[in-house]
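Re: [help] complex structure
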Amino acid sequence: MEHNGFIQEQKTLEGDLNSDTSHKNSVDFLMNWFRKRSIFVLAYGTGCGAIEMPPTFTSRYDAERLGIRGAATPRQADVIIVSGYCSYKTLRRIIRTYEQMSNPKYVLALGSCTVNGGMYWDSYNTIKKLEDYMPVDMYVNGCMPRPESILEGFIALQKEIGEGKASSWQKYEENYEFYRKNQEAVLGKKVEPSYDADWYLYDGGL
Amino acid sequence: MFKEIKKRFATDDVEVKRPDLYKVGIKYTRLFELVHMLRDEYEYKTLNAITCTDWIEEGHFALTYMLTTLDRKHTFMIQTMINREDAHAKTFSHEFKQAQIMERDLHEMYGIDFIGNENLKELSLENWIHTPPLRREFDTLEFVNNHLTFREGRDDNVDTKAETKRLRALKKAAKEAAKKAKEEAKAQKPKDEKIKEGGG
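Output below.
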């Protein structure tokens, strides 16, 4: 039993996942099981928290053993990670990216900056509460959260998906006016970023 | 070189900051002449940086141009004042290509209009309609309080300063009470003994 540590860790992590049995019917159970066991995370990082994501997904912490792996484009992804502070300029891109993703989609917010501004609490160019502008399924606090915390956040999210509780995309559709109002309050009437295929030459250039 | 600059530009504000860094303060009207002289005669061919300092009390911006010669590893710092209200200056982007983006940055952060610069579009802000953020009359905290919402604290959240004060007062009171009790005990002891003696 020398090399039991890793197996034991996995058992502890997955213990929570397999325990729940509260389902309406078996189709729901199956759908949710598929969803929670194949989470595709958009390869997109904002702010400093993005640096904790590569170790989470590569060999040391290996999120793929839990069914979590990367996706190249928003339309193929299930989860977007908002990893750290969002300036107004980033928020535009995050909203654009989030709206491009297909349902069901989930949001994982990392770091204290997304919770209450963190160390950027008095910055004129950084939003303080992410959930005002887009729905958030799971917050992982810390500055920055280590990959262990990120994995635990993912497992908590998987558990919610398995129970059918994580439904932030429906919340976004139902309360779109609320979110749009908040977005326009900080970003102006035109929320979408203005770029096209050659944005670095467009409109005066970089 | 200093002598020539002093004589030609009628300035006394000349200083050796480090062996490899000289500084000269000069009127804005003579700036171009000095920069051209340094570039053509003394081979200061690189414009390192343009920086701006906001002297709100005196009512002007201090623009600093850093010119470097890589052959001699030497830097020349030229400082000049421009008016704070309706701040404008002529562009250096025709002499030095890199000045274009530096001036664009200063325009964004301080609102200085560089006349002749082709593109002064915002660099890192987008659709900014308020005071340029690095001007000192821009109150960051006020802006944040007016424009953004903070998360409310938890219910069991306490003001740490007041809490520390309260705890300290409690501790002090407890200490004093203990002291008093000790003294009383001391005072009572002989009495008790006496009573015991009397009783015995």
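The helical segments of chain A are 4-19, 26-37, 53-57, 88-100, 111-116, 147-163, 168-174, 176-187.
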